[in-house]
Structures are given as C-alpha cells and as structure tokens.
C-alpha cells in the first residue's frame, strides 16, 4: 500500500498504522476500503465521541439510549416510543430530491429495525435566501423529495421547521426525524447472536449506487468535490420491507436486525457482530446484485437503499424467506454467525477480507480536536442598545417580520406532505408541536424539532440550551410532558478549532438543559464538514423532542378560539434584542447575545402551563420565539380570524424590546374571564410572572404601550403578509 | 353487511378505512389480499388510498392487473358496491370500471388539505343520506388527482348524473381556486352508469371523527349501510 492509497480513501497516516496493527499485516484493497468507511467521521464519530459522552442519557423511561439504530423510551401500557433524527445534508446539496428522499427512507428504516411501527415524520431544513435561483431549486426539490418518500410509504409528515440564512447557501441542511411505536417486549436490537445462526440479507438488490457515501459525508463541499452516485430511493420497496420486517418481528421470528445505511453491508455486518461479541462468515456471491460482475469491494461498500440484515435461528430460516417472498421481496442467507469475533468475507469460497468485527465497529481512533473560542464572538458579543434606532412605524416592522420566510407560514411546504395518513394526527404542521393519538389507548404523543441557529452562532452554549428549552416549551404548550430528545448536530469542519469549540459548547448547553428539564438524550446524529468553499454554516444542533399526553383529549393549540377571552402573558420581558430576528431583518445586524435563560424559571413556567391545560383553564397556549410578543400574538389570530386588543406597560423597556424582543420563558395564553383567578393562583404558586395584557375580539390586532398606540393592523392584512411570505419568492 | 378492503402492495389507506369502519361505525370489515381470487362474502369493496405498486408506470395501472381485479370487475358487473378512494379511484379507471383518467395535479405538486365537496347526485347508494348541493368538508392527499374525460364523455356524464361530487368553495360555488388539482369541471367523484361503483380523490375515511377536523365522511358510509338495509 502506498500513502496515496489510504489518503485517497480519507484515512490518515496514523490511522493506516493503526489498521496494520489491528490486522497484524497490511490490509488489502477491500479491507482498506472497509476501514475507510467505518472509520469515517460519519460512521465512527471519531471527532465527536469524547464530547458526546457528556450527554445525560439515562432516565426512568429510557429503554434504549445512544449506540443503537434509535432511542427508545417507555410511555406506559407496555408501549414505548422509538425515535431518531438524522442528517442527509451533502447528498441533498448535490441531488436534492433523492438526497432528501433517501434521508427520509434511512431514518424510517432505523425505526422499524427496532421493531417499531413508524407513525410520524418530522424534518428540520435550512437553506440560503430564497431570492437565489439555485436555493429555490434546492428548496423545492428537497420538499418534493421528503413528500415523495413519506407520502408514498404512508407515514404522515406532521411537523418540522425551516429557516433561511445566507450561511446555508452552499450547504443546505436536511435533517429527518422518524417516530415509531412499539410494544416494549417487541424491541429488537442490531446484535448478531447464536453461533451458527443464519445471516439473511433482505430487500432491494445491491447496486453500485452511493459508493463511499459515508466518506463523502465527512469532507467539506467545494467546487471540486467529487460526489459519489447519490443513492436513489424506492419507497415502494421500503414499504414492503417495513411490512415484512414488522410481521416477522411481531411473530418473534427475528433475533437481531439492522438496516443497511451508510457504509452498506460493511457497517451492518461489523456492527451486528461487534455488538453481539461474535463474528460472521459471509459469502458475497450470494448477495443479489443489480449489476453483473460486481466486485467484492462494490458489494461491501455500496449504499443501495431499502436493505435489511437479520440474524434468525435456523428453524425460522425457511419461514423468514417465505414471508419476504409473500411481500414480493428478495431475501438470501448470505452467511452464518461465528465464534471468535472475526469477520470473514468470501467470494466463491475464497477469503477476500478478514477483519475483527470489533476493530471496524469500535476501534476507530478517538480524537480530541483542538478547540478555541472563535474570534468573531469578540466583535459580535457587544450590542449597545443605543445604536439601534427605534422604528418609526411599528406596523411596517410587524408586517415585515411576519412575511420573513423564517417566520412566515410554511403552508406551501407542508401541504405537500400527507400529514393525515394513518388517521391519528390530532394537530398537524404549523402548530407549536404536532400531536399524534395512540390508537387503543387514551394517550397522545407531542412531537417537535427546534433550533435557532443564530442563537447558537452568537453563543453556542446558550444557543444549545435554548434549543432544548424551546422544544420543551413547544411540547408543553401543546399539553405534553417532555420525555426525551434526539439531536441532529450539524456543524462545520471539526478540524477547525473555532468550530470544534462551537461543538463542545453547544453540547454542553444541550446537556445542561436536558439535565434540568429531565429529557435525556437517546441518540442522534453528528454531521460535520457542513461548509461550502471554506465557510462554515451556523452551528445547528437540531433538537427533536418527544412528549406524552396521558389524556389525548387534554391538548391545546396556539390559536385564539373565541372573542371576549382574556389574553395572559406568563413570564418576564427584558431589553433583549441580541440575536433576534427583528435585529437581523430590520436592522441587518447579527449581533449581541441570545436572550438569558434561567432553567429553573423555565421549569416553573412548564408546570403552570401544563396544569392550566390539564385542568381545562385555557383555550390556547403559544410560546414566544422569533419576533417576540407581537409575532406570537399575530400567529394566534390567523386560524379563526379573531383579532385582539392589547395594552402593555413598558416598565422602562424600549417598545421594540417589548414587542419584538425574544426574552425566554414566556407563553401567551387565552382563556375565558371567569377562569382568570384560577390561572393567576397557579402562576403565583409557582412564582411565574402573570399579566393580563388584553382580550380577544374584533378583526384587528391593536397594541398600545403605556397608552400610546404602537400597532394597529387588520387580521386580514397580517395574514396575507404571513401566508405570502414564502410563495412570493417562488414562481 | 360486510366491507372488504383490498390491500395491494403499497396501499396505505387500507388502515384508515379499516379503522373507520371497525372502530367508528362498528361494522364488519376484513382486509382482502390482492392475490385472492374471490370476493365472496363481501357486500361492499373498498379500494383504498396509497401508492399501489409504488404507482410505477401510472397511478393504479399495475394494481389494475392484480390477481384480485377480475373478481372485483365481476362483483361490480353484478351490482356489488365498489368504492375507490384516491389511489383506489385510479385503479378503478385503469380497470375500466369508471370512465376517465387521473393525471398529475395541474401545479405538479402533492396536495394535502381539506376541500369542500358539493354533492351533485343523491341518487346513488353512496350519497342517498345526503342532500343535493350539500357541502362536505373532506380532506385530499394526492399528487395525481387531476380528473380528465374528453368533452363528449363529460357531456354524457353530466346527462346521466354520473358526476357525484364537485370541488367548490365554502359557499358551494364551483371556482378555479376551489379546484385543487385541475380536474375537468371541478369533478371530485364519479360513478358508473349503474351507480354502484364510485371513485373519488378525497378521503371520506379520514373525515370520520371530529378530532380530525370533520365527520362529513361518515354520511357516505352511513348511506352505504342504509342502502344495504333497504335492499335486503
């Protein structure tokens, strides 16, 4: 082997040395290829492992934490929720439809691999500004690809988030989350156990697509980046695979199961054997291939979609093949589980690779990259409020804010997703959290995905903390108790100390919030190298959160329901304009620190809101986020077309801070007047600031501050601006 | 009476229809695997939504060649009730049980949202419990629901009362804005000449519980049940 051989595959010189030591000899070309994909950042987390270990990952409900295909938490009644988020950023930058589609397909497989019926999909998307033609192409195709896969497989896409910022221009983010439901005793893991047990490969045939995808995911994009053939998704085959696998798992016919994703067969055989403390003897001539004459290298590294590997007991082997046949799928016994931990790969009987499974799956080096506080923070941190001119016309500001694609209605997007499939969606896209009823029980799940990456950019620790907190607040405003999170950590190159510092800080912030809010991390995905031509994206750790409603009838949505209701603001407002959408959009400045967050105050707020919803005190609840109080109030008007009259006192705050600032731990509620005393008592008991700020009614949003009218807009005008915010950029 | 829901590889609305009939209407219902060759014992067949055979070639085209289809055609010819929903509607046109074809939506995009359907004909087993011009709020979820028939057939459909539903605005007006997919004449549902086979793109099985936004779909299923009672 020459240095260029391993360097071309993305391996470092010291990594090659380590491979030689593990084998006690030089690897051949195939073995080197298998190491290169398994030791890529994408598969091995070699740059992130040490930091990820600091996440809180345990809790009374956690049945499966990080390290498996997906996390699992118990929800009572013998049921559990299985969920995970995963990125498909680089493929989507190159071939947006298929990149996004296969991202959805991959995350669905991760869920049913665990024995769970997928019941909902969410997504978190980031693009450059929509005035750019290429961005519009990426945006429209990614949306079509997500719908194209989710709709065809019959799993509703019920929520998500989308932001537009120049930092994502060359490197969009496409994170897909899937949530599944399983009976606790049906949980299956990706473990190869039982010496002599057959190893069965099922689903699509193996082709030459997606070769080296894991390595591609682990480099920066530039004009010269050579993209591999992006995998092509086939949701029809995946649907059949899903039905067949769940039937087999449901009947107890499967001992261990894992899907084939990044690094294809190499990853599945090595991880399953490694987790089971076993080895495998695999015959590649048995693998059904799409092309004639595929080489062992191609078969082991291809990332063809819609494939599953399972280990079953010998007496079940024939039955398993029969079930796949009934579903019209190919399945083949390609090998056996062996003792001793060695992965023996053969072609027509001849050994073509022989590697300890553990070396591939677990022995990648762990790096502790250098971290250094980014220089930009010194210039962005300070935001003298005196340098921000007060708006002359607050109406114009609010109209601009609600029409900003970051705040505007995402209806254009989610109407392309079948969010009602499986007839269980109580609340679909466009609310604080989606709600899915669990058939056969009284329960419902609350689901959300959140991250304000501008916050994370301007203070990674605070931003990470706020991302978790905002997700939890969204769950709570829907009536759910936050249970656990999955994280999609999207960052630039970890080899740059300033980026690695962002990563460390964001993880620390997420961990702190998860500890206090008691929402452990059950898994997730790290996507580094999100850079285009040397420029990193904003650090974007997306938090996917699952919450539980014991009583599905006691949920809440954000819109005002009736005229004459009182409007209450819980929480306290400060002169906080740093990192706000208002500052960026109206004043063109990405500056300052994100708003302060006190997690104990946040928890108290959650207790008040949850009790109020459960006791039936409130008719609506909405958390305050981008655009602050004025935007939150506007969003409450649209569904029913009910206006509001609001009287605020500034208490010394700037009017723009009061209206558009993004102070944390605040929620807007509406309720009938006679319920006010009960709510006030609840808030007082928890020490949560409580303020009646107005009442619903009319067809305008009127806001006065200290008696001066600052805002007066018709609901219709606001709604038109809000609804047109995205379509106006498209043809 | 007993409902049978035909399950093709790639069907997904089978679950929704089954749930509505069993859990909401408390009526007998069973799945029928597409490889079955008989539909004996069933009184109403439902061809559900989804993407049978991945909708490869054309929506419903491959499913219309499925082993079960001759039995469905025979059942329909003998007057059996057949309801095709979304992909099931596509299968029925491909199988020749209903006139016309369903193209890709006019704007090229998948649409999932509530629509208003106006009842055009109450003299069918599926709509006898409804009033003429009654408005129903029923959701759609499809990318290929753009109904087309040639002008001569359209006129014939109009004259013979085969147009069962049209997309309208909330006031019952047939407008271009209310047409979600470009269907000719805003047609949302058609039946055969003998009125025992109905195809529609909207999903009545998703409009059966108030918590999901509408119970207007129930009226359609209740019509079927009532028709059956009366015909016994």
Dominant shape of chain A: globular
Residue share in β-strands of chain B: 15-25%
CATH architecture term of chain B: 3-Layer(aba) Sandwich
**Radius of gyration of chain A using CA atoms only:** 26 Å
Question: What low-confidence regions of chain B span 5 or more consecutive residues with pLDDT below 50?
Answer: none
Oligomer: heterodimer
CATH class of the domain at 11-44 and 188-364 in chain A: Alpha Beta
CATH topology name of chain B = Rossmann fold
- Mean pLDDT, all residues of chain A: 95
Largest beta-sheet characterization of chain B: 9 strands, mixed
Structure annotation, total helices of chain A:
26
CATH homology group of chain B: Class I glutamine amidotransferase (GATase) domain
Q: How many β strands of chain B by DSSP?
A: 11
Strand order of the largest sheet of chain B: 2-1-3-4-11-10-9-6-7
- CATH fold group of the domain at 11-44 and 188-364 in chain A: Phosphoribosyl-aminoimidazole Synthetase, Chain A, domain 2
CATH superfamily of the domain at 11-44 and 188-364 in chain A: PurM-like C-terminal domain
Q: Indicate how many domains the architecture of chain B comprises.
A: 1
> Cα-atom Rg of chain B, whole angstroms?
16 Å
Query: Biggest interface pair, residues each?
Result: A-B, 29 and 31 residues
Strand and helix map with partners:
The complex is a heterodimer of chains A (731) and B (232).
Chain A: H1 3-8, H2 13-23, H3 29-38, H4 41-44, H5 49-52, E1 62-64, E2 71-76, E3 79-87, H6 89-94, H7 96-112, E4 117-127, H8 133-153, E5 157-164, E6 173-183, E7 198-203, H9 213-216, H10 235-250, E8 256-259, H11 264-276, E9 279-283, H12 296-301, E10 307-311, H13 317-326, E11 330-338, E12 342-347, E13 350-356, H14 357-362, H15 376-380, H16 394-403, H17 411-414, E14 425-427, E15 434-437, E16 444-450, H18 453-458, H19 460-477, E17 481-490, H20 497-517, E18 521-527, E19 531-532, E20 535-536, E21 540-549, E22 566-570, H21 581-587, H22 599-614, E23 620-623, H23 628-637, E24 644-648, H24 655-660, E25 667-671, H25 676-686, E26 690-696, E27 700-705, E28 708-714, H26 715-724
Parallel strand pairs in A: 4-5, 9-12, 17-18, 24-27
Antiparallel strand pairs in A: 1-2, 2-3, 3-6, 4-6, 7-10, 7-11, 8-10, 9-11, 12-13, 14-15, 15-16, 16-21, 17-21, 19-20, 22-25, 22-26, 23-25, 24-26, 27-28
Helix pairs in contact in A: 7-8, 8-10, 16-26, 19-20, 19-22, 22-25
Chain B: E1 3-7, H1 13-24, E2 29-33, E3 44-47, H2 69-77, E4 81-85, H3 87-94, E5 101-103, E6 111-119, E7 135-142, E8 146-148, H4 151-159, E9 163-168, E10 187-191, E11 197-200, H5 216-231
Parallel strand pairs in B: 1-2, 1-3, 3-4, 4-11
Antiparallel strand pairs in B: 5-8, 6-7, 6-9, 9-10, 10-11
């Amino acid at each position: 082997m020459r240095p260029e051989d391993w360097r071309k595959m993305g391996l470092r010189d010291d990594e090659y040395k380590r491979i030689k030591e593990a084998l006690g000899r030089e690897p051949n070309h195939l073995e080197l290829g298998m190491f290169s994909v398994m030791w890529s950042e994408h598969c091995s987390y070699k740059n992130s492992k040490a930091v990820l270990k600091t996440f809180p990952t345990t809790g009374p409900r956690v049945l499966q934490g990080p390290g498996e295909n997906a996390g699992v938490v118990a929800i009572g009644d013998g049921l559990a929720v299985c969920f995970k988020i995963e990125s498909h950023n680089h493929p989507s930058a190159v071939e947006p439809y298929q990149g996004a589609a296969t991202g959805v397909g991959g995350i669905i497989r991760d869920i049913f691999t665990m024995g769970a019926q997928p019941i909902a999909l969410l997504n978190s998307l980031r693009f450059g500004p929509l005035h750019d033609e290429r961005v519009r192409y990426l945006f429209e195709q990614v949306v079509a690809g997500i719908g194209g896969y989710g709709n065809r497989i019959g799993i509703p896409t019920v929520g998500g988030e989308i932001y537009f910022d120049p930092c994502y221009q060359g490197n969009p983010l496409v994170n897909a989350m899937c949530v599944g439901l399983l009976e606790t005793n049906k949980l299956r893991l990706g473990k190869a156990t039982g010496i002599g047990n057959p190893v069965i490969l099922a689903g699509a045939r193996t082709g030459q697509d997606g070769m080296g995808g894991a390595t591609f995911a682990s480099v920066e994009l530039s004009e010269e980046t050579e993209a591999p053939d992006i995998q092509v998704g086939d949701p029809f085959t995946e649907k059949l695979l899903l039905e067949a696998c769940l039937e087999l798992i449901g009947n107890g016919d499967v001992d261990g199961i894992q899907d084939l994703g990044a690094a294809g067969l190499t990853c599945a055989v090595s991880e399953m054997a490694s987790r089971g403390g076993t080895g495998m003897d695999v015959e590649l001539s048995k693998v059904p291939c799409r092309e004639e004459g595929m080489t062992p290298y191609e078969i082991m590294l291809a990332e063809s979609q819609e494939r599953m590997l399972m280990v079953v007991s010998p007496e079940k082997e024939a039955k398993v093949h029969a079930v796949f046949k009934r579903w019209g799928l190919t399945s083949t016994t390609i090998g056996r589980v062996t003792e001793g931990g060695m992965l023996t790969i053969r072609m027509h009987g001849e050994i073509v690779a022989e590697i300890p499974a553990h070396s591939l799956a677990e022995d990648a080096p762990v790096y502790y990259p250098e971290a250094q506080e980014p220089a930009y923070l010194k210039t962005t941190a300070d935001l003298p409020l005196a340098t921000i001119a007060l708006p002359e016309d607050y109406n114009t500001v609010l109209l601009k804010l609600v029409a900003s694609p970051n705040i505007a209605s995402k209806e254009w997007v989610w109407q392309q997703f079948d969010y009602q499939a499986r007839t269980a969606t109580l609340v679909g896209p466009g609310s604080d959290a989606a709600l899915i009823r669990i058939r056969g029980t009284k329960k419902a799940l609350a689901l959300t995905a959140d991250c304000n990456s501008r916050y994370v950019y301007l203070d990674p620790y605070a931003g990470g903390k706020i991302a978790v907190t905002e997700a939890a607040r969204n769950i709570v405003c829907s009536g759910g108790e936050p249970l656990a999170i999955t994280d999609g950590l999207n960052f630039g190159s970890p080899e740059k100390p300033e980026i690695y510092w962002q990563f460390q800080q964001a993880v620390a912030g997420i961990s702190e919030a998860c500890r206090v809010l008691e929402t452990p991390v059950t898994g997730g995905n790290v996507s580094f190298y999100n850079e285009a031509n040397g420029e990193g994206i904003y650090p974007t750790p997306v938090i996917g959160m699952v919450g539980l409603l014991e009583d599905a009838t006691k949920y809440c949505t954000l819109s005002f329901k009736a005229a004459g209701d009182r409007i209450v603001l819980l929480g306290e407002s400060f002169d906080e304009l740093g990192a706000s959408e208002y500052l960026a959009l109206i004043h063109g400045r990405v500056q300052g620190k994100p708003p302060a967050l006190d997690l104990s105050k946040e928890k108290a707020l959650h207790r008040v809101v949850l009790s109020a919803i459960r006791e039936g005190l409130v008719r609506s609840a909405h958390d305050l986020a981008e655009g602050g109080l004025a935007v939150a109030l506007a969003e409450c008007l649209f569904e029913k077309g009910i206006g509001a009259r609001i009287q605020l006192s500034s208490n010394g705050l700037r009017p723009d801070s009061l209206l558009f600032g993004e102070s944390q731990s605040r929620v807007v509620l509406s309720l009938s007047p006679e319920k006010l005393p009960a709510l006030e008592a609840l808030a007082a008991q928890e020490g949560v600031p409580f303020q009646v700020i107005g009442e619903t009614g009319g067809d305008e949003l009127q806001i006065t501050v200290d008696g001066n009218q600052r805002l007066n807009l018709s609901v219709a005008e606001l709604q038109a601006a809000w609804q047109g915010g995205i379509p106006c950029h498209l043809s | 009476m007993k409902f049978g829901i035909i399950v093709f590889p790639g069907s997904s609305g089978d679950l929704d229809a089954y749930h509505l009939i069993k859990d909401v209407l408390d009526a007998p219902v069973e799945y029928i695997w597409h490889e079955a060759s008989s539909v004996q014992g069933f009184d109403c067949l439902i061809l559900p939504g989804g993407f049978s055979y991945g909708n490869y070639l054309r929506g419903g085209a491959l499913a219309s060649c499925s082993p079960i289809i001759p039995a469905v055609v025979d059942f329909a010819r003998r007057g059996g009730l057949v309801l095709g929903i979304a992909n099931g509607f596509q299968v029925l046109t491909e199988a020749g049980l209903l006139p016309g074809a369903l193209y890709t939506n006019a704007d090229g995009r998948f649409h999932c949202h509530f629509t208003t359907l106006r009842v055009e004909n109450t003299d069918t087993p599926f709509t006898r419990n409804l009033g003429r011009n009654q408005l129903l709020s029923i959701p759609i979820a499809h990318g290929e629901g753009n109904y087309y028939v040639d002008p001569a057939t359209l006129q014939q459909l109009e004259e013979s009362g085969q147009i069962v539903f049209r997309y309208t605005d909330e006031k019952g007006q047939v407008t271009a804005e209310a047409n979600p997919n470009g269907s000719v004449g805003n047609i949302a549902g058609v039946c055969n000449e003998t009125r025992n086979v109905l195809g529609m793109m909207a999903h009545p099985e998703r409009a059966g519980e108030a918590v999901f936004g509408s119970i207007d779909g129930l009226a359609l299923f209740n019509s079927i049940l009532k028709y059956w009672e009366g015909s016994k």
